[in-house]
Amino acid sequence: MASLADTDLEDRLIDRILPSRARIPADPPAGNYVVIDVTHFSTTVVELFENGAEYVHVTEQRGDEHAFKDEHPEARIGGGSSDDYTPTEGYDFFNSPTWVNDTDVAGRPTALTSTNGGAAVTDLRLAGGDDVDVYVGTLANARAVADHLDGTEKPTYMVAAGSKGKPSPEDTVGAVVIGRHVYGDSPTDAERDLYRQVTKLGKAPKYEGKADIRLNDLLEYDLRFSESAVVPKLKGQRLHDVSE
């Protein structure tokens, strides 16, 4: 019988990559789960920490951020975007790494979720037990997350969040890149260029008719490879940067 995997590395990646949020088990086995939503939840979370956020509270539902801000008046909260790609009324930012860089989050708690990546974090939190650890990864912090998990006894699973229950190219690329770092087979420069091209061609046409900020999110932030040392880990309902 033909095998899907051509190499031992591919065999390991196939075993450890969940190709969409819909594939998260109802009772996840013990392990480290890296949620990957390259465009744009994971990259936005990384940028929040790069800009000094104290933590990122991942709400269960869009709209819960307002109650969080009532309890934490100093917080900055993220929600949906308007037709012209500005935050909807009552929110300080939306799911955009570009916008976050113009938002004062230094030393402040923040809160947001998203349909895919944020929801995957919540799914794992609600379904997993004490032996399930949840991280957020993207291309920008791929090496940092893998280095942090190096030597752990628990298996590492890459959760490519996807969209509407289906795989998406950029999240699959992110999962493969992080997985390769986890298994000590870092992509070469030529391979990174190829991965970048797959991600760009898979997403850029979608943004051509939209506001410039979306294309900027993709080209300036989402397509960076291992430039960030941030390692977001879920503790309770909050992501904290646990990098050393």
The fraction of residues in strands falls at 15-25%
Kindly report how far apart the N and C termini lie: 46 Å
Find the count of extended strands (DSSP E, 2+ residues): 10
Helical run tally: 9
Radius of gyration: 17 Å
Spatial order of the strands forming the largest sheet: 5-4-6-3-10-9
Q: What would the principal axes of the Cα set say about the shape?
A: globular
Order of helices and strands: HEEHEHEEHEHEHEHHHEE
Overview of the structural elements:
By secondary structure, the protein is an alpha/beta fold. Helix content is 38%, strand content 17%. It is built from nine helices and ten strands. The chain has helices at residues 8-16, 41-50, 65-71, 97-100, 117-127, 142-149, 169-182, 189-207, 212-222, and strands at residues 17-18, 31-36, 55-58, 76-79, 93-94, 109-112, 132-137, 156-160, 232-235, 238-241. Helix 6 packs across helix 7 (169-182), helix 7 packs antiparallel against helix 8 (189-207) and helix 8 (189-207) packs antiparallel against helix 9 (212-222). The termini are far apart. The mean pLDDT is 95.
